[in-house]
Amino acid sequence: MNKDIALILAKLKKTKLFSLDTVAPILVGILVLYAWEIGVQITETPVYLLPRPSVIFQALIKDWQILFPALIITLKITVVAFIIAAISGLMIAVLMSQSKWIEKSLYPYAIVLQTTPIVAIAPLIIIWFKDYTFGALVTCAWIVAFFPIISNTTFGLNSLDPNLRDLFILYKASRWQTLWYLRLPSALPYFLSGLRISGGLSLIGAVVAEFVAGTGGTDSGIAYQMLIAGYNLQIPRMFAALFLVTILGILIFTVLSKISDWVLGEWHEGSVKRDS
């Protein structure tokens, strides 16, 4: 019997269910929710100002059939924008790494897109796309998401080990061989880091674009449900929708982090976990 218990505990330890990385955030979250619940009860704060977590959870269960399909639509916009941002960002970064003239010509425009508030240009983009609202929302999310990939990947492509670069020059490697065997492997950690940032920004861009578009009907995303709930003073539903968006953002970052760790393995110093 004791051996069976020890075996179960060993398996749980391997799965890291009880590791500090897992337990600490859960405990902090429980304490915050408990303090929130008690604080609202003590202060008798009205529901239309700040609902209790228990009320938000009830609204989440009650309106699940409305909120979940809307969340899936927002997820589709996020995923499509993220994939386009990853591919276009990588291609532009590779192009800029081939020539300083190209980099100096294109990089300022990437900065312009990054620094331009998406809420200012989203209405114009929606007008341009006319009845194709999905494409307009994807474009807005792409604008927000693609700059970190360009910036990180370009930096990685230009951050070469001088010794390895001289070695490739010594063996008269072609530009293509240098790109494929030296620049891209060197830039891989930076590219994956950009993906982790871009994943969350894709979701933010999708939600902001949905707020600006204000489209309803069966193709409305989670942001539209938040707008309608706010207009109707259904604050628990609005918080429930916000909770779903938050969970989705955490899941996106976690998945991308796991993919990054899996791709890099143990060959890159940044992915190797060390005990403090």
- Along the chain, the helix and strand elements come as HHHHHHHHHHH
Number of strands: 0
| DSSP summary: helix tally | 11
Broad structural category: mainly alpha
User: What's the story with the biggest beta sheet?
Assistant: none
Please state the average pLDDT score: 83
Helix content: over 70%
Q: Beta-sheet strand percentage? A: under 5%
Radius of gyration: 23 Å
Low-confidence stretches: 270-276
Gross morphology is globular
Distance between the termini: 35 Å
Report on this model:
InterPro entries: MetI-like, MetI-like_sf. This is ABC transporter permease. Keywords: Cell membrane, Membrane, Transmembrane, Transmembrane helix, Transport. The chain has 276 residues and is an all-alpha fold. 81% of the residues lie in helices and 0% in strands. Helix 5 (100-115) packs across helix 7 (133-158), helix 7 (133-158) runs antiparallel to helix 9 (175-213) and helix 9 (175-213) runs parallel beside helix 10 (222-231). It starts with a helix and ends in a 12-residue tail after the last helix. The model is unreliable at 270-276 (pLDDT under 50).
Describe the secondary structure blueprint for this structure.
Elements (H helix, E strand, L loop, with lengths): L1 H14 L4 H24 L9 H10 L1 H34 L2 H16 L2 H12 L3 H26 L3 H9 L4 H39 L8 H10 L3 H30 L12
Helix pairs in contact: 3-11, 4-5, 4-7, 4-9, 4-10, 4-11, 5-7, 6-7, 6-9, 7-9, 9-10, 9-11, 10-11
Family: Belongs to the binding-protein-dependent transport system permease family.
Main location: membrane
Pfam families: BPD_transp_1 (PF00528)
